Amino acid sequence: MAVRREVSSGAIVYKATNRGVFVAFVRDSVGKMTFPKGHIRKGETIEETARREVGEEAGLTNLRLVRRLGQIRISFIDRFVHKGNTIEKDIHYFLFEARADAKLKKMKLSDGEKIRAVKWAKLEDTDRLSEYADMIEIVRKAMALIKRQVERKKIRKSFYFAI
């Protein structure tokens, strides 16, 4: 069988609410909890792809870019599009913030992999719920950035109320 090289892009998305900070998860086609991601289309940037994939897989739009998180490299045997071929894939990840009232919506995808479910999880549960070992570094980086972002907003908010 052939070896194919692919490039994808995805995102970890969070929202800060009065009830706490939550991170968006999708349950992928093999039943694992992870984050929205997908193939880059011709003419798209990796950030545009990440935004599109979050919209397609989780129904989230109007996202604020916080930061690029980095990339991982994975290798697997394809079961969907190029069945039986080994895929070597670079996946770029971004951190986005959604509005506090953002709602997840499981989207119907036309072909290939299927998203089985979507859910918001508490920030403190994120590293435990993320089921791919190759995501550990990206998830930990995202969690640290989210905590800093939320803390900065609290400081700014308290500063404005103090005036």
What does this structure look like?
With 163 residues, the protein is α+β, with helices and mostly antiparallel strands. 27% of the residues lie in helices and 37% in strands. The chain contains three helices and seven strands. It has helices at 46-58, 126-129, 136-162, and strands at 3-17, 20-27, 33-34, 37-39, 64-77, 86-97, 117-122. Strands 1, 2, 3, 4, 5, 6 and 7 form a seven-stranded mixed beta sheet that branches. The chain is globular. The mean pLDDT is 91.
Query: How far apart are the first and last residues' alpha carbons, in Å?
Result: 67 Å
How would you classify the quaternary structure?
single chain
| Chain-averaged pLDDT | 91
Radius of gyration: 17 Å
A few lines on this structure:
It contains 3 helices and 7 strands.
Search tags:
single chain; 163 residues; alpha+beta; 7-stranded mixed sheet; 7 strands; globular
SSE arrangement:
Elements: E1 3-17, E2 20-27, E3 33-34, E4 37-39, H1 46-58, E5 64-77, E6 86-97, E7 117-122, H2 126-129, H3 136-162
Parallel strand pairs: 1-6
Antiparallel strand pairs: 1-2, 1-4, 2-3, 2-7, 5-6
